[in-house]
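Q:
My hope is that you can spare some time for a protein that puzzles me. I hope you can help me see how the letters and the tokens relate. Thank you; the sequence and its tokens follow:
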Amino acid sequence: MNNIDFHGIEEIWSSLSTSSLLWLTVTLAAYLFAQKLYKWSNWNSLLNPVAVSIVTVVILLMVTHTPYQTYFSGAQFIHFLLGPTTVALAVPLYDLRIQLAKNWLPILLGLFAGAVTAITSTVLIAGVLGASPETIISLAPKSVTTPIAMSIAEKLGGLPALSASLVVLTGVLGSICAGPLFLLLKVDSSSAKGFALGLSAHGMGTSRAFQIDATAGAYGRPAIRLTRRLIEGMHTQKKGIMLDTGHYMNTTTQLKTPEDAVAYLNKMIDKYEKAQMLHWFKGMHLQLSLGGDYVRKQRKEWREHPIDFDKIPFYELFRLAYDHACHIDLHQPFIGEGVREFVERVAPKYITLEYQQNSREEYEQFVETQSKILKWITIH
């Protein structure tokens, strides 16, 4: 221990800390770490990757006593990419130009209302709380992207650095609050989510909107293409898709109510309708499975108390697996607003009903309850 040259280590760190490659690597590593943490937490909004990566980098800078100017000299390449990235957001807008042209009036009205609300509410609240004119000017452009906000603040006599910080804070808060708010307000439209996030939380909110919608889209589009190839490759007249509504609900843990499930199913059907494949849905296994709360609880429990399944006897393991599956795939009557309309939209040739029940009487009660919603089947 006495032979360790701490002075030499300090010299090495001093040399590394001024390297532009070091801080670029640190920034990317912090974001990758934040993404892993976000995924591990089952996409908890409080662990937003941008917020976590910012806190991680700030703590590292404070611990190493590294000036911001030194850090920025290395991370400025990422800052440079902010401009091209913002411009690149126009590409998906171009793809949606027909829909935008059809809805130009509500889009313009929403844009005007959102912009006015964002600016006036910020200025009025800051004024009431006694903020200085310089601070109020810096607050005003908080809902636009960082370079533009800094430029506006500088030209109006504000503080560009303060504006940049508030823009980041606005984006982080918007990204964190987006998911819970959309669920609370039952906002199902992808375009409405993207527009609201982009308007209130600028580029960071827009990237979050892509995350919210692209997760299903990234898997959905290839799945639809593969399904089409499979069906078209089957050389028989009797072919089609059997939709199990409960199983599809189990592809997410975010559904809380039957109405949430209807919206989620309709979103999937939208993709098949767009691909002109809706007519291939020949049957429907109609059931409700809202096992998301159980899945999240079980994941947490297994992380905190791992189970060595190799040590469990086969029949006991089978019992546990069966019980686990029954808690996820609940097979309950699908009752709620929009259920009948969803079934009529898909228009299957036949419907199958299967439930978890404790007796014949309970099963008949479930079937009768489901039948009243559909108004198709009469139980004798």
